Amino acid sequence: QSWSRGMSYCLHSEGHLDTGPIYMRENGKLHVVNQGAGSIQNVTPKARPFSLFSRSFSVELCMNREDDRARRQRTDHFIFTYTKEGNLRYSAKSLFSLVLGYISDNVDHIDSLIGFPEQIAEKLFSAAEARQKFTEPVTGLRALQKFTEAYGSLVLCSLCLRNRYLVISEKLEEIKSFRELTCLDLSCCKLGDEHELLEHLTKEALSSVKRLLLKDNSLSDAGLRRMTAPVRVLKKGLENLLVLDLSCNPKITDVGIGYLLSFKKLNCLDISGTGLKDVDAVIKRLQMQIGLVHSKVPLEEFDHSNCKTEGWAEQTVLQWEQAVMEAMKPQDNLRSRVAALHFYGKTHRIEEVVKCTVVEPETKASGNLQFYKENVQNCHLPLKKEVAGSHELKNNKKRALAEQERERTSTQKHLCLTVEDWDLLNTY
């Protein structure tokens, strides 16, 4: 009776499902239960198709991260596409693509790329960049150094780090690995005189810099003295500098401007917003000694929108910035604490990215202090014809050339060094 009650309960509870025949073994014999009548028949089971899963059953395959490398090795050798009919189609990848992918996965183990073809190296750099190999803390720096040692300006010829002080802090060693840069924009980063990156500017690796923008970096005369010491004494460092922006640094005075007179190749200079005491004397000094003429209108050379990051590593710098921004996002467990502070009326300190919002009352007081050389076409001047038309500037130009000739013939000026200069040279 208990067996029949259990069987009838099973039949009534699951009668709406197509479970198929039910078999029971009793006294050594196999019996089939007829669901329709609920009776037991002593017959041999018939072979009929039986589906283990219902039609609505679905399976989702999940793989662990430990299996990613094995899965990649199984699928990376093929290219999967779909035909017009919707059928899956795959074809084998070329041997070059397979080797390129393997080397990019292990790019930090490369010994050297010197003498390697540039066309292949660019593809290798792009493949490693797509895998975000250069964002890794230790291996990324080692891999980036192999490319910069071999290809220099091809990796990066222009670097714009305006308002990116956090990127400089997090990726300082990577930034220092770039060689043969021609343009470097460090505007509005508040680096100060003692920053390691400013000391790196005097190294031989950055002697190719022709355009340097240091607007709003809390620089003083001491910083300019250190930055110009190799040029003034050893004729090395930033000797190829053509454009220099030192605007919005109020601690730079007339003494600091005197250190800039060693840049004989300088074509454009911006010292607006500095702490000059005798502006007229500085203007006359720059014109007489290095031939720079005061511009009445803003120069296009100091338009910061023209400075961009260019080279193979352009996307790499963007990846660094994105990683820094992701790290700055507030955590979920801190949001409740911030809400509580707002509820109880307490102010919460929010750290934001330093932005260059300089209104510069000093600039308005002293006016626009941008300088250029008349005989150089690299500096774009809307009013160049009007300035060049005065006889007074022509006479000043002749006096400036005569003064430069006297400096070349004079040897005492180069041999006469102060004690501070010698102490500074010993640090390099």
Automatic annotation (TrEMBL):
InterPro entries: Leu-rich_rpt, LRR_dom_sf, LRRC42. Gene3D superfamilies: Ribonuclease Inhibitor. Keywords: Leucine-rich repeat, Repeat. SUPFAM superfamilies: RNI-like. Pfam families: LRR_6 (PF13516). The keyword S-adenosyl-L-methionine does not apply. Belongs to the LRRC42 family. This is Leucine-rich repeat-containing protein 42. The gene is Lrrc42.
